[in-house]
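Re: beginner question about structure tokens

> Can someone show what the tokenized structure looks like for a real chain? I only ever see the sequence side.

Sure, here's an example I had lying around. Input first:
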Amino acid sequence: VQLVESGGGLVQPGGSLRLSCSASGFTFSTRGMSWYRQAPGKERDLVARISSSGGTITNYATSVKGRFTISRDNAKNTVYLQMNSLKPEDTAVYYCNDWNSALSWGQGTQVTVSS
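And the corresponding structure tokens:
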């Protein structure tokens, strides 16, 4: 099993980023997927989840609702996180995992929101 996150970077407040997580080693379409984030000195927190197959069920942390959108492309074994209206408090390392965070963690991708 391998999860590879990408798409992070430095962005100004109010900006946007799109994160990608490429998955391999398991049947991607049958697993719900999640995005988590970990800010310096803090625990890793759930950001968003998307159900398996067609991804018709999504849920979000209160802090990102209305700004972030999770989606998936089963043909590409990839889950995405579109992040809009970014705030400094969104600064963290972002990770993907399955719905229950049962897989080995990848290296994450750093998102820094700063002017």
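Each token stands for a local structural state, so reading them left to right follows the chain. DSSP finds no helices and ten strands in the chain.
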